[in-house]
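Deliverable D4.2, example record:
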Amino acid sequence: HMESWRNEVMDEINSINQDQVLLLHHDNDTLPDQKTTEIRQWMESVIRRLNHYKTEHHQILKEATTLLELALWK
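Output generated by the structure prediction step:
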């Protein structure tokens, strides 16, 4: 899981880098507002994804703890 999560976050980082390159080619008058909006949306996306990973990780740890507790009782 951790490797796939890492890959997804790297994809997100690469996507914002690509978006910023594209924005550099636009009219400079609209660039600051559009750039701010793009970065804000990207940050919100990354935060949602990290919260999802955190929830998944917590569930995996909970399951592993249960298995360990059962193994120790035997």
